Amino acid sequence: MQQRSKVDVHDKLRQDLAKTExxxxxxxxxxxxxxxxxxxxxxxxxxxxxxxxxxxxxPVVSDPALTKMLSALEIGMEIPEEFYPVxxxxxxxxxxxxxxxxxxxxxxxxxxxxxNRKA
Length: 119
Fold this sequence. Notes:
The protein is built from 4 helices and 2 strands. It is mainly α. It has one domain: 3-Layer(aba) Sandwich (name from scop). Strands 1-2 form a two-stranded antiparallel sheet. 7% of the residues are buried. The mean pLDDT is 81. InterPro entries: T3SS_substrate_exporter, T3SS_substrate_exporter_C.
């Protein structure tokens, strides 16, 4: 019975991995006219995309509907205009996270400098 449950768990994990999808976008306002798809995949490839994003501290936004739409694009393609509104919302959220992180880092640096002056 114990062996059967291990197999069931393994099958469940494999099924979950197979359902995993990821699409990575890059957008440089100075270099590009619109965000571009730079990576996409399902299963193991999607997990690797997410692992790299985590390692590089790239924000990840979970939006299955958007992922489905973006996964239809080829790597290197700019997103079509009809995707602009929803991708703009995602980018605004990411920029807000970045701004918040920068402000927090400044605050930590300032506190550290004050402690060093007092010491």
